[in-house]
Structure formats: C-alpha cells, structure tokens
Amino acid sequence: MMHRTITSLILVTAVLLLAGPVLGSDDLVLPTTMCSDFFIAEVSINGQGPWPMVVDSGAASTVLSDHVAGIIGGVDEVQSLSIGEFKARGNLHIFSRSMDQLSHALGTRIEGIVGHPVFQKVLLTYDYPGRELRVGSGNLPDEGQGIVPTGKEKRPYVDVRIGGKRFMALIDTGSGRGLTLSRKKRYRYREPLRPTGATIRINGLFFSRAGRLAGEMKLGPLTLQEPIIHEGVKKGYSGSLVGQQILRGYVLTFDQLNRRMRFEGPVDKPLQFEPFYGIGAAFDPKEKGFPVVAVFPGSGAEAAGLKVGDILLAKDGVNLWERDCPEDAAYATEPLDIVLTILRDGEEVDLTITTRALVP
C-alpha cells in the first residue's frame, strides 16, 4: 500500500462528470513494463504524457508527482486518465506529492501511482507469471477455484486464518514484501521478530522487523507453511497486507463491482518459505546516494564494518544513479558476496559484505 497515511499533503478530490472508464475492446493488454515485480504503466492525463506510474491494488487513491501536476495545471484539472486504449473519466480521487524517494528506491523515474478504484468498472488482471497487465469486461463467477470475496472497502481485502484467529489482509501489488502482519503479539513464532532493514512507501521510510510464524496460515485459497512475516515498526503504521513475494506466483483478477477476486495458479500447493537473506542494514534513498541509517547486530554489514552515516554510492561496481530497474525480481535464498562502494569521511571505500540469513 503506497499511501496508507500521507501527512503534510494537500488533498484534492476530483469529482468528474462522466460515469466511468471507456474501453476500446473487451480484452486489452495495457502498456506496462516490469520493475522487479512492480507493474509500471504508461499513463496519460488529459491526453498529455504518457508518464510512468506504478499500478497499485493497495492504493485507495491515485497520486501524481508534483512534476506532472504542474504540467497539467493541478490535480483539480484532471479530466481523464488513460493507459493505452483504456480510459477512466470518473470517480478519480487525486493527490499530488514528490515521487523522488520512491524513484530513487526503485532505480527508475516514477511519476505517480494509479489507485485501485480507477479500474472499478472493469476486470483488472495482474498476470505475474506472464508479466502482463490486462483489463476486460464481464464478471467473475460467484464461486469456484481461487475465487474469494474482497470485502466492502475500496481496496481488496481477503480472509486470513492463523490458528483460531481470523482477520482480513490487504492484497497489495505495490508492496515488495511478502506478508506484513499487524498485532504481532497474537501469533506464535518459530523464529522471533528481529530487525531486517527498511522499506520505502509513498509516505516515507519505515524500519522493519521480520520473523517466521509457527504452523500454518490460510490466506484466501492459499495455504502458507511457517511463513516469514514482516512488521512495520514506525509509530502509527498498522494493518496486514500481502505483497509481491507471495503474489508473484499467481494471476490475480479483480472484480470490484462484485467485490471478489480470483487467484489462478498452484492454489492447491502449500507455499514453502526459504530463509530470508540480507546484509542487515537500512538505507534512506536520496538523489546522490543512500545514507546508512541503521546497521543491525550480528549481520554481515556489521561484520564488514559498515557504519551509520556512511553513504552508499554503488553496488557491485554500478553507481546507484546509473542503475536500471531490474525486469525480474531476485530473492536470494543462499549467502551472496556483495561489494558496496561507500563514501566515508570524504573518501570512497569498497566493502565486501556476505549476506546472512536474517530469518532462518
């Protein structure tokens, strides 16, 4: 969810006159590229553009960069939003804010986030295995394999069961994590929560911890065996969500009018979770480098001598501002040696860091 709470932001709600999206055909493949497991669409506003924007099922509203908002004369001037032949002309709720931090984190320029309600009149499909985003007409069936209700909210929530506990979790294609659970004291852990890094959302930098649950978890039609879960620990962050590290194995279709969705893929096969590897440090993405804001005890980063205040300039010889967004996500399941070039006391230093299992 790219913008759960947005502070110091001026909200403008654009109430448009026409009824809903206009489709050029019943089945459209939208012009998108993949940045890791993020779907980046080419979006036009009022016929201007297109600009690259993240399509995010976890976003209740659409966000434009300050840059794009300035070009079109402000978000209250939005009349239409188009992605290829798909056009939405109604029920658009628009914010504007800086996209710099998100762009630095992803390694490519992002000019906005397309919220889930933009597609409320159509079937929207995130085809992770096919690396494709589609819209179509019609309705999902009331029941069948992989069909689950998504609740009454603007965003899709599905039923979760852990032991005797039951709650709803957000299906969030804008989260690069797997599972994030709130109210973490309710659950039994095989591996306790421990610091692992930080995550970037539209509303800032969040330090995080992760652990491994004991036993089985039911997520809609899916069964998860001893899943690794993440926790946002910044004050005020709450809620449970399901992100890309789980969703990437499935084709997801959302039917917002009927408040249901479909998982297509190996829904009968329990999901297993490999150990979670990382260097054990947190960075704050900036334009000219990523300052180190935390180094965790017992990590590969600590063993290699990385320090808070160091500024990350390059990874494996590639400058951060010259890197391309990866088309495919890479989740390490074994130790890796990574060379980080940092700036310390005005001098560049290379550190070789061996990743460790932060959550076995």
UniProtKB/TrEMBL annotation:
Source taxon at top rank: Bacteria
Residues annotated as domain PDZ: 277-346
SMART domains cross-referenced by the UniProt entry: PDZ
Protein name per its UniProtKB record: PDZ domain-containing protein
Natural source organism: Candidatus Polarisedimenticola svalbardensis
